[in-house]
Amino acid sequence: MKKLIIASTSTVHESSYLAYILSDLNKFFDNEDEIIFIPFASPGGISHDDYTKIAQNGFAQIGKKVAGLHTYQDPVEALRSAKAVFTGGGNTFLLVSQLYKHSIMPILRERIFSGMKYFGTSAGANITGLTMQTTNDMPIIYPPSFKTLGAVPFNINPHYLDPVEGSKHMGETRQTRIKEFHEINTQPVVGLREGSWLEVNGEQIVLRGNLPARIFEQGKEPYEMNSGNTLTL
Amino acid sequence: MKKLIIASTSTVHESSYLAYILSDLNKFFDNEDEIIFIPFASPGGISHDDYTKIAQNGFAQIGKKVAGLHTYQDPVEALRSAKAVFTGGGNTFLLVSQLYKHSIMPILRERIFSGMKYFGTSAGANITGLTMQTTNDMPIIYPPSFKTLGAVPFNINPHYLDPVEGSKHMGETRQTRIKEFHEINTQPVVGLREGSWLEVNGEQIVLRGNLPARIFEQGKEPYEMNSGNTLTL
Predict the structure, then answer these.
(1) Domain locations in chain A?
(2) Rg (alpha carbons) of chain A, rounded to whole number
(3) ipTM score for this prediction
(4) Which CATH class is domain B3-225?
């Protein structure tokens, strides 16, 4: 049975890394002492070692060990026997390129579908969707495909942002961008505001956190969904 | 000799379509009565016909005729004999996909390099750079390549946006995104604020409009460049 936590962000405003979700992570990873961390999204160009240290410090607060996937000689083998995986945020194009380059996408998908626990934030959340095409990131590298894990039957837009009132900027709002996505793509999109996450138990997907999510379905007006509700997309 | 106007946006806040730049366009297209419009970026999913009408109404104010490239049976032939081209904004991934699909990229590049006048806004400005990789748009479609026209020896970031003071959003600022681009790419990036444009005459490139541009070079601190100055990237 699939077990995932798909979180909009690692960090909410004026809080420390993972603080808002640590007690839920403690329950989620109840029987897992060691988590493999995928650092490949490299936010701000941070090294894999330095990024892994941040994840280690975060999870140390709930007594979990974290090992960087880049430290294994054979990352595919490491994932084959992993008990739990956490993928951090950064640049989604870079993350997806690296996952394909190291042949990680298929084994990660296989393990998630057979019940290995998976936690992802931001880019690491985005890749649980059908495709990475509702990322907010810059295309800094050309990935071999936009197809991602498909652990949920829709796309994720992390860091979902409401239009800024009184803005004089003429660039598209997030909602307009997702509307453009739906001009040529059919899958629903879940806009996860910072501090929100999806809890996946098999085919049941529940919204958690303090804020509602914004749901986009092709040909419908976007609508809000409150925390605690089950998604039926 | 290359002749281009590379503009951040078609429309500035509280102004009508192209209004801020019409008198400059009138001088730029002094001897050209007819302009071919490339509507393929389809902002908000607008039809090619409807988008072309907007461009026609804009240019009618300075007595220029506009014909949509999509109305020609053979768009490559149409570009071969075009006197001037305008590419409008929308989604850059869609625009670049369409330009490759219809084999337009090579002929457009050839004609620009042999002196055909080119005006581009937003996505239409982005594609004059070396690659489309500093677009702000969502990857709603997978293009065959990120390589673009290379009419200027750098990349363009249209709608350049300064960090929003007091924002509680944890998503990356534009500057952070471009810094991530430079972790794995070497070409400079010109951040064009709305209302700014580059005037290209052969190898001379001058910044125009009311605002400074923000210049990003790999391994350097970003810096501001005032309007009226010549770029030496």
Answers:
(1) 3-225
(2) 17
(3) 0.93
(4) alpha beta
